[in-house]
């Protein structure tokens, strides 16, 4: 069932409403709504920077090998100091680890908390 017509909320305007309680002359402009908060947009931009610039440089700097065991397969680039604990998305906070060493480091960090 359609809503009853009403007049514009703006004082002195007697036109019928179109949406948001205001007439076409006083309605706010259409803006696309974003599901991503500003904080998440910054995080996503930092992650893209990490993937494009920091990660390849860390792999090359560490000789495409795990810095702990020397493994050359299943490599991952890890934050030395996690972002959640105040780490940065920069090259000096990156290290190359194999999947097993990375899992062990992550488990050790979780036990500390």
Mean pLDDT across residues: 87
Q: Helix coverage percent of residues?
A: 25-40%
| Order of H and E elements | HEEH
Figure out the total of helices.
2
| Shape field | rod-shaped
Give the strand tally.
2
Q: Strand portion, in percent?
A: 5-15%
| Main sheet overview | 2 strands, antiparallel
Poorly predicted tracts of residues: none
Description of the molecule:
- By secondary structure, the protein is α+β, with helices and mostly antiparallel strands.
- It has a domain at 53-112.
- Helices cover 34% and strands 9% of the residues.
- It has helices at 38-61, 99-112, and strands at residues 75-79, 94-98.
- It has a two-stranded antiparallel ribbon with strand order 1-2.
Brief digest:
With 113 residues, this protein is of the alpha+beta class.
In terms of topology, how is this protein built?
Blueprint: H1 38-61, E1 75-79, E2 94-98, H2 99-112
Antiparallel strand pairs: 1-2
Features:
two-stranded antiparallel ribbon, alpha+beta, 113 residues, 34% helix
